[in-house]
């Protein structure tokens, strides 16, 4: 029997707060006719050859390459080799990007080339898709999109502004205190920026990283893990700890705890107390 290509697949999710849409798709042949978008498109080819017309020429994106398409640039899409292709794409609204770049002067931004070899940006796009499609907390989604913006800036000719040390230090400290006060609650980057007195979430992200060496969401997860470790060592059950520390459930706590400490929460509790967790399977 002749080999049957896998069925085409198209999945789209939308982040309501930012308006960013994320697509993950697989096509075995023709994907779409010539068309335009009003957003900035940034994507990465995961597998195969992604063949498309853009800027007056045929483009061929292979595994790991980044695709950059400006608003209103006409393009089509199809497989460029047997076996089809798979890709992820983010659609960044014009206003979202304009606000994000407001800290740096310059004319209208633009991409120097449609295809780029930028593994760091490719990883950021992949991570953003996972955050949006996986229903990550608001602060985690915002952090993933901010990481994309950080990696995208060189391709737009817009380097990040150097922090204003005194003001940004105060902003970072207020944001840190707010995170400690809301350890078990969910907060988005825009709300955190307002609470900290930052001009916007992008100033907050720069200030926080300069002060504490990490993004606000990563810092929040680290603090939640520290609190969870303390509670487990005191004999609290993993399910109760997960709820008290802002994790979605015991499995969510377990995934983060193993990544940080190399063991399950229930196993850590048993080591500290000598009492195995029999109320529920170890997280």
Automatic annotation (TrEMBL):
Superkingdom per UniProt: Bacteria
InterPro entries: AraC-bd, AraC_XylS_family_regulators, Homeodomain-like_sf, HTH-like, HTH_AraC
Gene3D superfamilies reported in the protein's UniProt record: Homeodomain-like (1.10.10.60)
Molecular function via GO: DNA-binding transcription factor activity; sequence-specific DNA binding
Domain HTH araC/xylS-type positions: 173-271
Keyword annotations from UniProtKB, A to Z: DNA-binding, Transcription, Transcription regulation
Keyword Kinase: no
PANTHER family associated with the record: HTH-TYPE TRANSCRIPTIONAL ACTIVATOR RHAS-RELATED (PTHR46796), TRANSCRIPTIONAL REGULATORY PROTEIN (PTHR46796:SF2)
The protein, known as: AraC family transcriptional regulator
